[in-house]
């Protein structure tokens, strides 16, 4: 999960190098609700979360590569198992993003 604010100068997203499960947890990490980025003051309630990566595709790729040791059937089985594991990680990350975005400080 990646945290970001929308640049008040209109230059897109500014990613934050902190990790937190909620906005109150982020405020505690930052030492308060207000913080500065690129010379602009933001409130932790301005922070949003998004998924960090697509774990399903990555799991399928890694599983397929590992499965290559077992030939064709190994690639298929490895890719399938990797996709299942990656999909579970995606679900977990989706829940974490929803938890963060639903919180207020």
TrEMBL record:
Record keywords: Membrane, Transmembrane, Transmembrane helix
Protein name as catalogued: Uncharacterized protein
Organism: Undibacterium luofuense
Ranges annotated as spanning the membrane: 57-85
